[in-house]
Amino acid sequence: MTEPIPRLNAALEGRYRIERELGEGGMATVYVAEDLRHHRRVAVKVLRPELAAVVGAERFLAEIETTANLQHPHILPLFDSGEADGFLFYVMPHVEGEGLRERLDRERQLPVEEAVRIVADLAEALDYAHRHGVIHRDIKPGNVLLHEGRPLIADFGIALAVNAGGGHRLTETGLSLGTPHYMSPEQATGDEGVGPATDIYALGCVAYEMLIGEPPYTGSTPQAVLGKIITKEPEPVREHRKAVPGNVDAAIRRALEKLPADRFASAKGFASALADPTFRHGEPARTRAFASEAVWNPVSVGATALAALFGGMWLFGRAVPDNPTARLEVARFTVSPPEGTTLSTSQGFAITPDGGALLIRASGGLHRRDLGGLESVLIPGTQSAWMPFVSPSGEWIAFFDTRESVLKRVRLDGSGLQTLGEAPSSVRSGAWSEDGTIVFYSTGLGGLARIRETGGESEPVDTDASAVVWLDLLPGGRTVLGGVSPSSNLDDQVVGLVSIETGQVTPLFPGTMPRFASGHIVYWRRGQLWAVPFDPDRLVVTGEHGLLASGVDAGQNGLASFVLSDGVLVYRPGTVRTLGHGMPVWVDRGGNEEALAIEPGLYSWPRISPNGRRVALTRLQESEDVWVHDLESGVSLPLTTSPATDATPVWTPDGERVIFRSTRDGASNLYSRRADGSDEVQRLTDSPTDQRPIAFTPGGALLFEEFDVVSFFEGQDIWSLGMQPDAVPARLLGDDYAVSAPTVSPDGRFIAYQSSERGYPEIFVRSFPDLVGARMMSTLDVGQQTSAANADPREARAPVWSRDGREILYQSGSAVVSVPVSTEGTFTVGAPRIAFQSAGWPLAGEGRHYDMHPDGQRVLRIRVGATEDAAGPANELVVVLNWLELLLQREGN
C-alpha cells in the first residue's frame, strides 16, 4: 500500500506540502502542512477512505461550501476544500496549543470561572453560526481547540456536509455521526431534523464534563450511553461540586432538557444565563431565609406589584442588618417614566442616598419617583435640568440648567428653587460633599470647580486633569473620583482620583463614569458595570473586579446611564454606543464609497499591507483584538484572542509581521506576531508608560508614541525602535506639548507629525533623521472650496505620506486633505485640497483611522455608525435591589 503522505504530496503538489500526521479522528486524519501559496502552516484534514466513498466528492464539497463564510473569533475558519487523487480534504488554520480533550484528560476538571468563560465563548460562536443557518452537530471536547486560553470550535459544518453527502448509506457501513456521550436525545433516536437545540445540548454536556470531570451520562458501551440519554435525568452539577454557582447549575440543567423546546431558545440565551446570577430553572432548589442562592428572577413589575415588592422584600431585607450571617435577597425590576414621556437621551437620573427615591429626567423636567410608591411627580422649575445629583441628607437636588448655564438646587418636595452660581459651557457632572461643598466639571470654568451649597462664586480646582467624566466624591470630600482622560473614545478613559487640595491625579484602572458606594467603586466598561473593593482612606483597590450587569447604555454623550446607593443600583439598558469604532469603507477621490467585504462589526485603525493584499484592523467584541483580512479571498482571521486589549496594528515593511499594542502584561506595550499567526506573540518593549505603534521608517525602524494616559495631550512623545534583538528605544520628539502620528517620506529625508504646540492639532515637517528645521504645513482654507463643508480649518490630524512621496494626507473634520509636496532638494508644499470625503460622518476616535491603498486612488477609512446594531437604549430603567449581594455570591462569602 502506498504511504499516504507521499501520495498526498503528489496529489497536492503546488498547493500544500504535508509535513507530518498530527492525529486521527472518527471522520478524518489530520496533517500539518505548509500552504505554499500563502506561506503559512495549516491543518489538512483528509476524510477516512470508507467515509469518502460513501459521501461522494461532489455532494460533500457542495455542502461544505455553506460553512466557508463563517467568521467568528471562536470558530476555526475553513480555508480550502477539494478532491485530489481520490482524497476528500479540507484545510483549516494550524493552531498552536492543545485541545480541550487533552486538557481534560490531563486535569479532569477545570476551574469554575475558566470553564464558565469557555462555555460562554462557545455559546456565542454557536449563536453566530445558528443565525447563519449552520448547525455543528458534533460539539465535543475533541472539536474544541484552546489557543492562548480562548476556545476555537473546529470542524464546523463538517458533520452536516458528511451527513448530507452520505445520507442513509452511512448506517449501512457501520459509520455514525456524533459522539455518544454528547449526543442529544433527538440524535440518539435517529431524528434527522436536528436544529440549534442539538448543539445547545452538546454544549451543556461539555460544560458538565469541564466542571465534574465526566459527561452527564457514561456507560460501558455506546448503546448503554444512548439508553441513559433517552431515559435518565442527569445529576445536578452542584451535587458533585458545591463551588459551582446556582445559576450555572440551572443553566446546564436547562441545556440538558430532553425536549428541544425546553432548552434555551438560542445559544446566546445559554451564555446570558451563565452570566446572570439570578437565573433559575425547573424546581426551585432547597432554600433558607436569606440564603445566598435565594435570588429573584428578573421581572418587569407593574405599579402595584412594584410597591408590594419594594415594601415587602427590600425593606424586609434591610430590617435584619445586625445578623452577621444573614444574606439579603437580590431582586430586579423595571421602572418606566411617566406615561407619555421618554427618558433623557443622556445621563438624566439620580437616586437618594437611602435608595428610596429616583429622580428621572424625562419630558417636561425632573420627575420624582418613590420606589415604594405608585406615582411620579414633576418637580417645578426643572424643565431644562440636566445631570441631577442629590445632597447627602437626601433633602435637596442639584442640577445644571442648560438654558441659563447655571447650577441650581431644589428640595425633593419641589420647594426652595435657588440659583447657586454660573456653570458655563459643557458640564460633565457634579457631586455634593457632607461639608456643604459642591464639586462639578465645567469646560467654561476651565475644568473642575467647587461652590458652596448655599451659592456664591465658583472656585476653580487647580489640577493637571484635562477632563473629569461623571465625577463622584469619596467620603470626606477631599478626593474626586472620576474618568480622568480627555479622549472622546471611551476605551481610552481611566478611572482615577483627583486631590482637591493638591490637584494630583492618580490613575487606577481602565474604565469610566465611576461611583463609590458600599466600599466599592462601580464603573462602566464597554457596556458592562463592574465593581471593585476600594479603601477610601488609603485610596487603594483592595480586591478583585466583579461583573454587576451587562448591556448598560452609554448615553448619547458617552455618559453611562447608571446611579447607585448602598442598597439600590439603577441603570438604563440598551445598545452600547462605542465611540471610535465602526465599519471599514473604501472611498475614492470622487467621493464614491464601497464597504469593505468583511463581517459586520466594530472596527478601527485599518492598515493596508505593503503589497496591498491584506488589511490589519482592530476589532472590538468582548475585548479589542487584531484581525487580518485577506482582500483576495475575503477571509478574516483573528491574529490575537487575548482577553486583554490588543489593538492599533502596524505592518512591518516586508509584510510578514504585525506590530500592535497590548495590555496583556500591564501597561500598553508593543508586541509582534507573524501575520499568518504561525508563531507565538513576542513582546518588544517593557515600559510602565503606555505605548502605541505608528509606522516604520524606510530604514526599518519602528516609530511609536509613548504617553501618560492621564494627561494624554500634554505628555505624548515620539520614539524609535530598531527591530534587531538588542535594540533599545530612543526618544525622537517631545516637549511640554503632545507630538504624535509620525510618518516618514519614502526617501527617508523628512518626517511629518502632529503637534499641539499652539493648543490645537497641526501638522509639522522636519528633516530626518537629524530632526531640524521644523516647519508648520499650511492647512486647508475652507473658503478655497465650497465642497469643504465637512472640514475644520483649525484641525489637522493624523498625517500619512503617500507611497509615491508626492503628497501628505491628513484628517480635517470628516475630510481627508491632500497637500502636494516635494522632497527633492529642499522640502516644498503646494496648496491643500480635499481629496477624500463623505458627507455627514466623521473619522473615528483618536489616532489615524484611515490608510491609503498603494495605488494612491482610494483610502480605507472607518465609518462611525455604519453598523446595523443601533437599537438604542430602552425607555425604562432596571432597578437592582441589594446589588452588593451579587459580588458576595461570586466571592463565595
Give a summary of the structure in a few sentences.
With 893 residues, the chain is α+β, with helices and mostly antiparallel strands. It has 14 helices and 57 strands. The strands form 14 sheets. The chain has a 5-stranded antiparallel β-sheet, with helices on both faces.
Would you kindly provide a written description of the structure presented here, covering whatever features stand out?
The protein is of the alpha+beta class and 893 residues long. The chain has three domains: 4-275, Transferase(Phosphotransferase) domain 1 (Transferase(Phosphotransferase), domain 1); 303-577 and 872-891, TolB, C-terminal domain (Neuraminidase, 6 Propeller); 582-864, TolB, C-terminal domain (Neuraminidase), CATH 2.120.10.30. Helix content is 16%, strand content 34%. It has 14 helices and 57 strands. It has a five-stranded antiparallel β-sheet with strand order 1-2-3-5-4, sandwiched between helices. Strands 25, 26, 27, 28 and 29 form a five-stranded antiparallel β-sheet that branches. Strands 50, 51, 52, 53 and 54 form a five-stranded antiparallel β-sheet that branches. Helix 3 runs antiparallel to helix 6 (158-166), helix 5 (112-131) packs antiparallel against helix 9 (196-212) and helix 9 packs across helix 11 (246-255). The termini are far apart.
